[in-house]
Amino acid sequence: GILTGTLLTITLAVAGAGVWALVLPLFVLPLCFTVDLFIVDGWRPTFAWHVDRYRASSRFGLNRMASLTLVNGSNMLESSVMARAIGFAMLGVFGRATGMASLFCQRLASVLLGAIYPVLARVAQGSDAYRRVSALVLRLVAWLTIPVAVGLSLLRQDVVVTLYGDRWASVIPFVPAVM
Questions:
Q1: Lowest CB count within 10 Å: 37, 51, 63, 81, which one?
Q2: 115, 121, 122: which is closest to 30 by C-alpha?
Q3: Which H or E element spans position 97?
Q4: pLDDT at 38
């Protein structure tokens, strides 16, 4: 799904599809999961509710909601503090730098974790296998994102000017901090 989405992005971009080259590939990975669930596994909804069967799913959902609440809350607090400290004009520049960091670093991690979640859901929580898989996921995300962040921090001048032009030159000092 990830490779197909990437190939579709490149193909559509080369073909001149414009914004569709960014939008359509977002549906490839969920489509792969849907085909796997309904066609390969043959799952069909039963519309029956059993608390014990959904305990793990609800715990997972609550953990995801809590982590997203913390991330969004920290972003809101960061924006509030930064707006007060450096003003709204510089907050926009900082936001551009944060967006660039998100594009290069967080995107890698989110695509990887989106692909790995189905595997993690099948491993018994609290087991040795779960701890090994969790440690492997953490190392893999670190091995992917840290070199990208360091490389972009070192090459920030060239990357910003090449990708975004001279208008974004004010972002360059913020790049190492946000990476």
A1: 51
A2: 115
A3: helix 51-101
A4: 94
Residue 33 CB-half CA count within 13 A? 11
- Residue pair 33/39 in contact by the 8 Å Cβ criterion: no
Number of H helices and E strands in the chain, helices first, is 8, 0
Q: Is 127 helix (H, G, I), strand (E, B) or coil?
A: coil
Whole-number Cα distances in Å, 129 to 117, 126, 151, 170, 171: 15, 8, 33, 47, 43
Confidence of residue 69 (pLDDT cuts 50, 70, 90): very high
Say which residue the tokens 């975004």 belong to.
164
Please state, for a pLDDT cut of 70, what percent of the chain lies above it. 100
CA 166 distance to own-chain centroid = 27
> 101, exposed or middle or buried, with CB in 10 Å at 0-12, 13-18, 19+?
buried
DSSP secondary structure string, 31-65? HHHHHIIIIIS---------HHHHHHHHHHHHHHH
Contact between 136 and 112 under an 8 Å Cβ cutoff? The reply is: no
